[in-house]
Amino acid sequence: MSSETAKSGAQTQLYPSSSSAWFLVAMLTAAYVLSYVDRSIIGLLIEPIKADLNLTDEDIGYILGPAFAIIYVGAGLPLGWLVDRKRRTWIVAAGCSDLVARNRSLGPCA
Questions:
Q1: For residue 13, how far is the Cα from the chain centroid?
Q2: SS3 string of the chain?
Q3: pLDDT of amino acid 89
Q4: What percent of the chain shows pLDDT beyond 70?
Q5: Count of CA atoms in the C-beta half-sphere (13 A) of 52
Q6: pLDDT of residue 110 exceeding 70
Q7: Among 4, 18, 50, 69, whose CB has the most other CB atoms within 10 angstroms?
């Protein structure tokens, strides 16, 4: 029985505290919301972008379709490979930092 108690005590220490786990859930949710807004905002800004850059509907179609898919696949495959081989916490942190940096860099454009 003492070995079972020792095992169960060791297992409970492997997981973070409840408050830490919920904080991580909140942070990942915030990152997901920012990512979703970042991807969908271009749909709201199509007309001003077309007017500003003198683009046609066909040009916008290329931007929203194949160009997005090529970049998504081009980044997704290497990152998928990396996630299988490295620490996921560092990859998520790097992705969140990259998202924040890209959004901050666009601030002066507004």
A1: 29
A2: CHHHHHHHHHHHCCCCCHHHHHHHHHHHHHHHHHHHHHHHHHHHCHHHHHHHHCCCHHHHHHHHHHHHHHHHHHHHHHHHHHHHHCCHHHHHHHHHHHHHHHHHHCHHHC
A3: 87
A4: 86
A5: 5
A6: no
A7: 50
